[in-house]
Design a protein that fits this description.
The chain is α/β, with parallel strands linked by helices. The chain is 26% helix and 11% strand. It has one domain: Lysozyme-like (3-Layer(aba) Sandwich), CATH 3.40.80.10. Strand 7 and strand 8 form a beta hairpin. The longest helix is centred in the first third of the chain and has 19 residues. The protein binds zinc ion. Zinc ion binds next to loops.
C-alpha cells in the first residue's frame, strides 16, 4: 500500500508566517500545529524545491520522473573520528544507562495510525533496503506529555499522522515508542545524501523507510519560534548517547549517518533540533568508543 509521508508537530519555525496564532498551550497547541503542518505540507505538493548551495559532492541526481531526490549539499557530520577515551567515569555511567535501556526499557504504546511497516519495495516496484541506517535528531518544542498524547491519539488523516522511535525527556528518561523495525512517521518530504524512498509519487520521497527518529524534549524557554534556546540537559546527552549506542550496536549505523531533521527536510522549513551541542555528543560517543 502506498502511503503519504508525514510531518511531525514541530518545530514551530515551519509556521513562521502564522506564529502569531500560536498562543494556546498543551495538546491543543500540538493539535493546531499538526493541522497547520499538514496543510502546509500538502500545499507544497509537487512544487518542492531545495534551498541552499549546490551539491558539493558527486550527489547529482537526475530528473527521472521523481525517482531521485533533488540535488542538495551532502551532510557534513560535526562528529569527528577519535579512539581516545578520555573520561572513564562517564564511560561507565553511559554503559550503565545502555544496560538499563536494554533490561528495563520504558515503553509507551503509539496508536497504530501513527506508524507503519517498513517498505521492501517502493512505489515503482523497485526493491528497497528497509534496514535502519540513518538516525534523525528532533526536538519536541512542547513538553513530553503533549508529544506522547499526540502519538497515542488516533489520526485517521494521513497528514496528521506522526511518530518517533524514542523521546528523551529533560530529566534524561528515555521513552521508547516504536520498535526500530517499525517505520516511524518522523519526517515528511526528505532526503539524505541523495537517498530517499518514494512510497507515494504524488508527494515525493522520504527518509522514513531507512531512518530511526529520536526527539529531545525542548526546554521551557524553547516553546516559541525563536532560532535557539538554552539547550538540552547533560542527562539528555547522556541518554541520547546510550540510545545511539544501542541502535548502532543493532544496525549498520555509522556516526556520519547521525543527522538532523533540519538537514534532511526538503521543504527548508524545519530547524530542529535547535541549539544542539554536537561537542556534548562527540564526547559521549567518543568515551563509548563509537567514534573509533
Ligand atoms: Zn523534527
Amino acid at each position: 500500500m502506498n502511503q503519504p509521508e508525514h510531518q511531525p508537530p514541530h518545530p514551530p519555525r515551519i509556521h513562521t508566517g502564522r506564529a502569531g496564532a500560536l498562543v494556546i498551550t498543551g495538546s491543543l497547541l500540538i493539535g493546531a500545529v499538526l493541522v497547520m503542518g499538514g496543510l502546509g505540507w500538502i500545499g507544497r505538493g509537487g512544487a518542492l524545491s531545495p534551498t541552499g548551495p549546490s551539491p558539493t559532492t558527486a550527489e547529482t541526481p537526475r530528473d527521472n520522473g521523481g525517482r531521485l531526490p533533488p540535488a542538495r549539499p551532502a551532510w557534513v557530520s560535526p562528529l569527528q573520528p577519535s579512539c581516545s577515551i578520555q573520561d572513564l567515569a562517564q564511560r561507565q555511567h553511559l554503559q550503565a544507562l545502555l544496560a538499563a535501556l536494554r533490561t528495563a526499557p520504558k515503553r509507551v504504546r503509539v496508536d497504530p495510525t501513527n506508524f507503519g511497516e517498513r517498505f521492501r519495495r517502493d512505489a515503482f516496484g523497485q526493491a528497497v533496503d528497509p534496514t535502519p541506517r540513518l538516525v534523525v535528531l528532533h526536538e519536541t518544542v512542547y513538553g513530553l506529555r503533549s508529544a506522547i498524547h499526540t502519538f497515542r491519539t488516533p489520526h485517521p488523516n494521513d497528514e496528521d499522522q506522526v511518530s518517533y522511535h524514542a523521546l528523551i525527556g529533560e530529566d534524561g528518561q528515555v521513552i521508547q515508542l516504536l520498535d526500530p523495525s517499525k517505520r516511524a512517521f518522523g519526517a515528511g518530504n526528505s532526503a539524505f545524501n541523495g537517498q530517499w524512498v518514494v512510497t507515494n509519487p504524488k508527494v515525493g520521497g522520504s527518509i522514513n523507510n531507512f531512518a530511526l527518529h529520536v526527539s529531545l524534549e525542548t526546554p521551557l524557554d524553547g516553546e516559541n519560534n525563536n532560532p535557539g534556546h538554552s539547550g538540552y540537559s547533560s542527562a539528555q546527552y547522556d541518554s541520547l548517547a546510550a540510545l545511539l549506542a544501542d541502535w548502532m550496536g543493532r544496525y549498520p549505523i555509522e556516526p556520519e549517518n547521525i543527522t538532523t531533521h533540519q538537514a534532511v527536510d526538503l521543504g527548508g522549513e524545519r530547524s530542529d533540533p535547535r541549539s544542539f551541542n554536537w561537542q556534548a555528543l562527540q564526547e559521549r560517543l567518543q568515551n563509548l568508543g563509537l567514534l573509533c
